[in-house]
């Protein structure tokens, strides 16, 4: 039926006419003449008038100079309006009104003769003018500013590359003319940049990170001696991957979450939650019994962690239709705050005290305990803002992280460039954990259920922070795990230099990624899904850049490392 490509908006208006249904309110499509040839002249003019009236309504909503048309005057003096010269009118709204009135006047004249071609031509001239102008106005991209933004992003990427080369971990050994970074890191960076050219990365980005996490672990399995530990990590991550199906194509596939959320399996959710919280507290107790020397601060830390864990369990149990009902639990619950808001506030307060007690006891315990304290002390806060069925996922994160210690060197020097560092694997795990907890690049996947935990009234800033922490709970924990790994292996000035180098490398990744996505968004600015697909992905990228890498990774990470170094110097 159609011999050439047509705009989808034109197909929409044409189908609406053919089926006799209302045209979408803001549609700017022109009726396709090829599909209207079977109608009589009068019917065809009536269809064109219907579409023109709908488009003129959009014109009036967007242009102040366009006013209501006086049909009585047009009917009384059609020759005057039909001969009007609209080309010399300055304002766009008035010019489109003139064109519309001329088309109506010619339609009126065609009613008294058999030639309708002038009226049809006038309708199409008006619709083309209005459609072009309104389309340009609704997508009026300033290409000059967008190009300047891309240039600035490219300069930022170059700046971070220079910082990495001369101020931290070198990227290239100029004397030997070879790469100084591992081949897996280069491969992951290159494949991600190439993947940004495809819109499927936006919808199924989790597949990229799941693939690279297992690939990096497989490379560690082949190049170092800790094979059994690496196999255990791969098995644990495979369970993590199956916990929450996400993305677009596989979101409805069966997963562990669906099984746990079934009413007959509700008891298993709470068993896993209790086991996870118990294991976290047991790990903290074992760590403090081995390394702590200050009995007072150690007991305070463990007591606060246990209290915050019970409050988290009570908060989620109260909000669930199938919460804990055991008699022992009822006795424990009676000793806690009565309402959910007070429970959440107790967790916030306990988290702050956990940080204070950890730092207070650090001077006697040494810097070794502080990084591990952070991994356990932050868990009540992250679990408070997560779903109960995801508690066990954080337990698996602990298992994977614990299996990184101690580090096993490469089997041979020739395989050293193929051995992914633990920090690189943790970097991939941080991104993969975002999707493993059920998130995606769609705004529809944002979990608002715990955004008001402990908030008595609406506060934009506080709710936004809680939404961010809840959505990025997994990446935040793995970021702390990466900093803990570095802090356990280096001390003093070397620790500061190492963290600075890692942050520069992380920002180089993020800056190059943002540049690639910005370039793709610029090239695809006229794409049909630019606002439904590319725009949400860009918002997520900004959240990663500003919220995660800059605020949490850089500012928070440097403050935490500075505190460890300062207290260690005071000992």
Could you explain how this protein is built, in words?
The protein has 24 helices and two strands. The chain is mainly alpha-helical and 571 residues long. It has a two-stranded antiparallel sheet. Helix 2 packs antiparallel against helix 5 and helix 13 packs antiparallel against helix 14. The radius of gyration is 31 Å and the shape is elongated.
Secondary structure elements and pairings:
Blueprint (H helix, E strand, L loop, with lengths): L7 H12 L21 H22 L8 H6 L1 H5 L9 H19 L6 H22 L4 H25 L4 E2 L4 E2 L3 H13 L4 H4 L1 H19 L3 H17 L12 H6 L4 H26 L3 H25 L7 H7 L6 H26 L3 H9 L1 H6 L6 H12 L19 H15 L23 H12 L1 H17 L2 H32 L6 H41 L1
Antiparallel strand pairs: 1-2
Q: What descriptive keywords fit this protein?
A:
single chain, 571 residues, mainly alpha, two-stranded antiparallel sheet
Task: Describe, in short, the structure shown.
The chain is built from 24 helices and two strands. The chain has helices at residues 8-19, 41-62, 71-76, 78-82, 92-110, 117-138, 143-167, 183-195, 200-203, 205-223, 227-243, 256-261, 266-291, 295-319, 327-333, 340-365, 369-377, 379-384, 391-402, 422-436, 460-471, 473-489, 492-523, 530-570; strands at 172-173, 178-179. α17 packs antiparallel against α22.
């Amino acid at each position: 039926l159609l011999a050439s490509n047509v705009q989808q908006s034109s197909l929409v208006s044409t189908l609406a006419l053919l089926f006799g249904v209302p045209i979408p309110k803001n549609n700017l499509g022109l009726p396709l003449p090829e599909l209207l040839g079977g109608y009589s002249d009068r019917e065809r003019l009536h269809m064109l008038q219907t579409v023109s009236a709908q488009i003129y309504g959009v014109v009036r909503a967007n242009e102040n100079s366009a006013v209501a048309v006086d049909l009585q005057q047009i009917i009384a003096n059609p020759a005057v309006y039909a001969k009007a010269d609209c080309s010399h009118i300055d304002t766009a709204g008035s010019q489109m009104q003139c064109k519309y009135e001329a088309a109506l006047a010619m339609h009126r004249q065609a009613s008294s003769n058999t030639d309708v071609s002038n009226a049809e031509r006038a309708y199409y001239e008006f619709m083309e003018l209005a459609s072009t102008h309104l389309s340009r106005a609704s997508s009026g991209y300033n290409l000059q500013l967008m190009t300047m933004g891309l240039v600035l992003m490219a300069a930022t990427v170059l700046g971070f590359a220079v910082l990495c080369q001369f101020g931290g971990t070198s990227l290239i050994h100029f004397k030997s003319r070879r790469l100084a970074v591992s081949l897996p890191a280069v491969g992951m960076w290159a494949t991600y940049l190439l993947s940004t050219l495809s819109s499927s990365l936006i919808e199924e980005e989790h597949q990229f990170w799941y693939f690279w996490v297992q690939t990096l672990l497989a490379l560690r399995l082949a190049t170092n001696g800790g094979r059994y530990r690496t196999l255990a990590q791969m098995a644990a991550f495979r369970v993590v991957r199956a916990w929450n199906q996400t993305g677009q194509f596989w979101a409805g596939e069966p997963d562990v979450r669906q099984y746990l959320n079934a009413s007959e399996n509700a008891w298993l959710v709470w068993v896993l939650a209790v086991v996870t919280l118990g294991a976290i507290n047991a790990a903290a107790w074992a760590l403090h019994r081995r390394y702590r020397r200050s009995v007072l601060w150690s007991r305070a830390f463990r007591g606060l962690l246990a209290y915050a864990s019970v409050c988290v369990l009570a908060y989620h149990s109260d909000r669930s239709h199938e919460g804990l009902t055991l008699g022992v639990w009822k006795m424990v619950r009676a000793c806690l705050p009565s309402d959910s808001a007070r429970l959440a506030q107790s967790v916030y307060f306990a988290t702050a005290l956990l940080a204070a007690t950890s730092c207070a006891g650090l001077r006697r315990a040494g810097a070794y305990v502080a990084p591990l304290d952070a991994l356990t002390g932050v868990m009540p806060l992250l679990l408070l803002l997560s779903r109960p069925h995801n508690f066990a996922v954080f337990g698996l994160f602990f298992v994977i992280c614990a299996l990184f210690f101690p580090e096993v060197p490469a089997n041979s020097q020739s395989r050293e460039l193929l051995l992914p560092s633990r920090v690189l694997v943790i970097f991939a795990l941080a991104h993969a954990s975002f999707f493993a907890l059920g998130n995606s690049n769609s705004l529809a996947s944002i979990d608002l259920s715990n955004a008001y935990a402990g908030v008595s009234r609406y506060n934009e800033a506080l709710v936004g922070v809680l939404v961010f922490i809840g959505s990025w709970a997994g990446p935040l924990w793995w970021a702390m795990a990466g900093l803990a790994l570095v802090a356990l292996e280096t001390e003093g000035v070397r620790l500061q230099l190492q963290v600075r180098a890692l942050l520069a490398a992380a920002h180089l990744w993020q800056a190059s990624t943002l540049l690639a996505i910005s370039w793709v968004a610029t090239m695809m600015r006229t794409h049909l899904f630019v606002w439904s697909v590319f725009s949400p992905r860009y918002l997520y990228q900004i959240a990663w850049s500003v919220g995660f890498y800059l605020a949490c990774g850089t500012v928070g990470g440097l403050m935490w490392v500075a505190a460890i170094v300062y207290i260690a110097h005071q000992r």
